[in-house]
Amino acid sequence: MGLSRRQDQLVDLLLRDDRWITAASLADLLGVTPRSVRSYISALNARSAESPAVESGPAGYRANRAVLGALRRTGSKPTPNNAGPRDRVHTLVRELLEADSGVDVHRTAERLHVSEATVDADLARVRELLEGTGLSLERSGPRVMLMGTELAQRRLVSKLAHEEMTQGSFDVDQLRRSAGIAADRAAFAPFRRELTAGLVEQGYYVNELAAADVLLHVAIAADRVAHGRALEISAVDLEPHQQQVADLLDSLSRQYLGVTMGRGDLHHLVSLVLTRAVAPKSSDRTPVALDPQIEQVVSRAVAHAAQEYLVDILHGDFIQRLSLHVQNLVLRAREQAWSRNPLTRSLKSTYPMVFQVAVSIANDISQELDMSLGDDEIAYIAMHVGGRLERSRRAEAVLTATIVCPGYYELHELLRSRIDRSLGASVEVVAVETNMDPDWSSITTDLVLTTIEPQVPDERTVLLPPFLTEADTERISAAVSRRRRSLRLARLRAELEHYLSPEAFVRPLVAADEEEAIRRLGEPLVAQGVIDQDYVQRALERERLSSTAFTETLAVPHALKMTAGRTALSIGIADGSVRWGGGRVQIVALVAFSEEDREAFQTIFEQLVEVFSEHESVQRILRRGTDFAGFLDELAAVIDG
Questions:
Q1: Which pLDDT belongs to residue 167?
Q2: What is the largest CA-CA distance in the chain?
Q3: What is the β-pairing status of strands 399-404 and 204-206?
Q4: Kind of pairing, strands 554-555 and 583-592?
Q5: Does 85-148 match 5-74 at the fold level?
Q6: What is the DSSP letter of 441?
Q7: I need a surface site. Which of 92, 148, 178, 289 has the fewest CB within 10 A?
């Protein structure tokens, strides 16, 4: 039995969160009723004979991760009797790809146990799937044929695999099923391992995330070649460094896939490897030729993002590495050969500010180089940005501390030495008090690490023995995390209280989709003179670049340019959820920023996402924040912990 699209989404939600979650919450996230959720769970549990795939209890539902994960891996291939619309469409596409003479609508309807009208409706969905691929359907009576080049057909196979594979994982069995590949699963791991080792030996940095995507295309190529569908022979000779990659692919394909690929296929796969999975090291073996125009475009985009968001990314080495990436990106764009990034979802939810900077860079690059970039490609740019920002993030993460340890021989020196050695990356000791009765009120550091009981302990204080144990250093680390979060959220609370107003609080938010929600939340800000309709339009344009649904429950739409008259937020809470891109959200915060408050952008943006990524906090605010005053009270309570 195949999983429906809603069941697929339910499985993903349960596997991503190991906490209990109610049927009502799951229903809101899926856009269905709690009764439907319960029926989906009953169906899932009915298929796991030995133990339930989903556990139930007073607090709701929770995944039995091993069972549910196995069910997802083995349960995605339907039988003809129970195939859903998406399954039937994908089955039709695979048959069209394999049948040189096309498929017969009458026979297909009989085999799938559906009416001919249903098959006709599925063919209409196939045509939608073919948009932009260079492929088309031609029909003569009951027979339908897929028309287009072999390369375009392979891209369609890849598209099917990407649609069916779960984001964030590389499941070999699911890949083989979704792409219709017959290759032995045992061949994939050694092929990938030796391909990576061979490319490193040839002088490349290997992007393991994209290498999985390249492996998919190698497997598709091998399968098509084995069925007599090789690519046309290329008339262009490869350069020496390209020929080395071709020889490696040829050898591994023979050894592990049992297929001898022709020149056309090897040339195509070499292009995929060199534009997706590797970056050349600066060496005589792999000379790097960087297009000056691309470097200039990237440099301008980085400078604009650095100024707009006040981030430390304007460095020559960063611009060069990103330019090499964009140069490969341009080559992929010409062939519409986009690279999948399994970390896209986690990057957006965990590092929203980094992703926002990447969106800005991607937007400028897209406009200047006339190409459109999706979330997966933006995520790769975000990984470059995050790597560059990690250095400054580490510096900002260090908290100051005062040690209070009454002097007796060198006890305070030993204590300081142990703290520096164990926690030096996160704590900087800036003062040591050796008096028995220190002036506690004068200590202003982020933390107070003391061997004597303070008169009034607070959240900064960690009481320690004079000789630290490993358990003590763990307690200090926990205090560092709590204090860091407290400082961040204190800034957020101050900002939110300043920028929120009762007029810009909408509950219930009633909207069919993200565009209607953005327009609805823009109305009170336009009425207050904070923004104009042009800002609303630019927020919609930003949304089309990449969804601003940064968590399962929260979207933070905004314009790329900070042109509001003053900074303000318009909050909308749906009774249920609102369709947003490919998912659904329950809370929408339309943010309007002014030039003067650009420093507040990072605080509000990242910390708002952090607060609303915590399931319990969201549910508390949804339950109790029924009006503006209640919302502020609950938000403050959540922030204050």
A1: 47
A2: 98
A3: unpaired
A4: parallel
A5: yes
A6: G
A7: 289
For residue 265, give the amino acid letter: D
Greater confidence, 536 or 98?
536
Query: CB–CB of 557/548 below 8 Å?
Result: yes
Joined together, the tokens standing for residue 214 give 């390249």
For residues 482 and 459, the answer to whether their CB atoms sit within 8 Å is yes
Residue with tokens 């961040």: 488
Contact 304, 364 (CB under 8 A): yes
What pLDDT shows up at residue 84? Answer: 61
Q: How would DSSP label each residue in 360-376?
A: HHHHHHHHHHT----HH
- Please, which residues bridge with residue 554 across strands? 587
Distance, CA of 626 to CA of 624 (rounded, Å): 6
Query: Strand 505-506 to strand 54-57: parallel, antiparallel, or no bridges (unpaired)?
Result: unpaired
Domain at 500-640: CATH code:
3.40.930.10
Question: Cα–Cα distance between 559 and 610 in angstroms, integer?
Answer: 20
Query: Across the strands, what pairs with 462?
Result: 449
Can you name the residues that pair with 280 across neighbouring β-strands? 204
CA angle 329, 354, 335 (to 5 degrees): 15
Every domain of the chain and the residues it spans: 5-74, 85-148, 172-280, 292-396, 398-493, 500-640
Quote the distance between the C-alpha of residue 61 and its chain's center: 25
Q: Tell me: the pLDDT tens digits for 272-322?
A: 888 877 777 655 444 567 889 999 999 999 999 998 888 888 888 889 889
Contact 601, 578 (CB under 8 A): no
**CATH domain 398-493 topology:** Rossmann fold (3.40.50)
Tokens 């959220």 appear where? 489
Asked if 380 contacts 387 with a C-beta cutoff of 8 angstroms, the reply is no
Burial class (CB in 10 A: 0-12, 13-18, 19+), 128: exposed
Confidence label for 76 from pLDDT (cuts 50, 70 and 90): very low
